[in-house]
Amino acid sequence: MDGTPGDAAGHGAASITLERIRKRYPDGTEAVRELSLQVGAGELVVLIGPSGCGKSTVLRMINRLIEPTGGRILLGDDDVTRVDPVALRRRIGYVIQNVGLFPHQTVAANVATVPGLLGWPKQRTRARVGELLELVGLDPAQFGRRYPHELSGGQRQRVGVARALAADPVVLLMDEPFSAVDPIVRTRLQEEFLRLQAEVRKTIVLVTHDLDEAVRLGDRIAVLSEGGRLEQYDTPAALLGSPASDFVREFVGADRGIRRLAVTPVTRAVLDPLPADGGAGLPNVALGDSAYDALGALLTSGAEHAVVTEEGRAVGLLARTRVLALGAVD
Ligand SMILES: Nc1ncnc2c1ncn2[C@@H]1O[C@H](COP(=O)(O)OP(=O)(O)OP(=O)(O)O)[C@@H](O)[C@H]1O
């Protein structure tokens, strides 16, 4: 993901614009004092911040499960505060922690929920359900007829994603979608999800409290503090490398240099020329691998340099000091 908003956006993906949105709950709690944020079409933006800072409130204002008390929200050029909320929610996929599948309906029926509401012909719905289950890595013949309680947590999560994508929504909202599964399954689901997103290129806003998840998934990350205040809105590498405030610095943690290595690829710009012997005996790293993986290869072999290859051909030499510089932070 190169973080360029909007490039290669999927069919029908819409940008989201939050213009000075506010939410004051009836009891007087100011969950969001004023927030402006732009999400490009086809971009995956992560909202992160301490508990109670207003992340879920922001997310739910986008599909109007919660009515904003001020400001405007645009999907593309449409002001969502002026359209019927039920019709709006059919255009927006929504995935929540523990998924919220209907327990007495089969997997296929769950995935078919929104196409059913939209009155799609049965055959079209059936074809779409099969296509989506395959897309999320579940064999339709095997899983379509099961009930949610007959699935693992990770499988339920995938059904939740398939259901949210069923009617080809213009936007996907995800609230802690992977937090109910164990760390190993979570990492696998995140990787699969990134592959899926590369294919469908939806505009996605995802809420998490897990910084590693934010860094792994986000094209850009919005760090919020209490009252929905936007502390910083940046790519993962920029956020980790140059925190905009003490709040962000503390939030991204003392190990942000290591995290930054994981999201910074090895490029030609950091390479030195190959030595006369072509770097015989040195470990190999591929161009585009993360600086974190390169450092791992260097540490494992004990070498000061690695040979960087592109399509199997050596293109330069990478010094350990250059790798460390890639993780430098302000
Ligand atoms: N219905 C409500 N009535 C009054 N206050 C509410 C309501 N819902 C949420 N709040 C308050 O609004 C603030 C923001 O809540 P929200 O759930 O958006 O935060 P969050 O960042 O998603 O939190 P978490 O990470 O803990 O899920 C909190 O102070 C919360 O107590």
UniProtKB/TrEMBL annotation:
Signal peptide extent: none
The residue ranges of the ABC transporter domain are 16-252
Q: Does the keyword Transcription apply?
A: no
Listed A to Z, the keywords are:
ATP-binding, Nucleotide-binding, Transport
UniProt KW Translocase keyword: no
UniProt record similarity statement: Belongs to the ABC transporter superfamily.
From the Swiss-Prot or TrEMBL record, give the protein name: Glycine/betaine ABC transporter
